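[Automated response] Your request has been received and processed.

Submitted sequence:
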Amino acid sequence: MANFKIVFRDDEPMWQPGCPLLIEAVQISRNIDSAQCYLQIKCKNISDKVIRVVSLQVSIIGKDSADETLVLDYFDSDIQVGDAFTPRAKKIETVEPQSVSICVTRVDDTKNYPKLEKRMEAVPLCLSKKALGERNAQGIECSVKTGGLKFRHREFGSWWLCSCGSANVGRTRCHSCSAPLSKLSSWEDEGKLELAADERRYKMASEALSSESYGSIQDAIEMFEQLGSYKDSQSKAVEAKAKASDLSQKKGKRKKTIAIAVGVVAALIAIVLLSVFVIIPNVRLSFADSMMQNGQYDEAIAVYEDLGESEKVSSATSYKAGALFKQDGQYAAAVCSFSRSRSFLDSEAQIESIKQQAYDDALAMAKTGDAAMAKTAFEALGDYQDSKQQIGFFCTVPISVNGTSIRYDSNGFISAIGEYTIQCDEKGRVTTCCLPPGHRRIGSNENYSYEYQSDGTIVETSTGEAWGDSVSTIDEEGYRKDLTTQSGQRSYSTTVDQHGFATRQQLSYSRDGQSDIGTVSRVYRNSYNDEGLPTSIKMDGSNYDNISTRCVKGGSTIAITYGTVYMPACSTETTMRNLKITAAIRGEI
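Generated structure:
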């Protein structure tokens, strides 16, 4: 295993104000054995939308070498809202880097962003202990921990700097601490916070005063006296003292009758036990339910946990998530969360109140966003409109091969593999596979076109830097039968398993199309999931015979990842066939 040493790191690189992609950290590591350096980048989506395409321009200044510039394109990054993105390490020429600057040149369809600037220094926020206490109480009410809000927030049109120090673009809540933008101004106003704290204490004191408990009345007296001249606190304190005195006199009279109660001690003990083990827990449960309905989710969940109500903890957690999603306008996610707690409080009513918004949200999300979440939302909507029909439009299909993403059109035909654009005919058969203009990969085939014969076989014509023009005949399963190039001919013999994937492949080489000059035997060991779909295809080795340099190559593995995709006119068999054909043609399987 190679040993690496970090030779450069920047945990606060410059950024472009208003850019939805934030470069969080930059690092360069050097292989101690070979002296080869690698660039590593960590980014984060600080916007309110999924980022699918990213382009970066990297400038590296070395100690004794010329400046190095890299252009990095990530066409299928699919960075979810609030998620980090760490692309693969990039090999660089610079050996002793001194500085690195990274400029975002494109995010999806937007290409113009401001120049790089130093990150804005946050302005410290100082609040009184009383104001901090009230801010913490208000934060609990909207499920935000306010302890990390140590700075003044700042707004700049399309983006804003949160009190926690994090930048946000086009969002209503901070991607880092979840603080709502609408609350930050009031949470920084010490005067308003202290006034709200007095009002909160006044209400608590008034509730305590309405009690018939001597201890609660004493609490009311203390709180009204602390409030001083706030509203009618002084007169309320006098009223509380009078009520406390009256309760004290009644308490003295009751002491004279204690002897009478000796005969019912056993009964009282039974009542106490009943209260401790039955009545009080039920009261606390009811109180926790009330707190949930009042939006005090964390406090209610703490009570459920204390009482050992694990099912209620799970339901309350889902209910809380649903309520927050609903408040934030994420209706599909809200329905999914409420559906996990249908029998809890008014979850069913909550779903009913946002069915139309959730349906619209799920439909949009299915086409452009998280298909798995959209499917779950349609399942939660049940019989609403055509939700059950919509569920049938979701398929489990390969979404990446060895980290290279695969995209599909609404018919279930592959439309792209990584940077390659795929076109199919009306039967779903691949007709072209090519890179976009300006993207050239030296040393590999780049553009392919396929013509289908009457027996279903394919004649391939490819154009590439390394091979020049070549023609292949490919069988109906997508495997090469032969390949003719300027340097000779190769004939392929493939054995497949019951799923149609290669288990063994033999290649014969010739220069003139007649006499063999060597053979290669490849053995594949394939793994499948419960649905019979391949999850990995491993080539144990390539044994070369009759070649001047005898050697054994091995160890390469093709990993296939599956995901949920929305296809209104889909066919899993069609997509699997296209995957096999396209992957086989490109030499990956």
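Summary generated for your ticket: The CA atoms of residues 99 and 522 lie 46 Å apart. The chain has 14 helices and 28 strands.
If you did not submit this request, please reply to this message.
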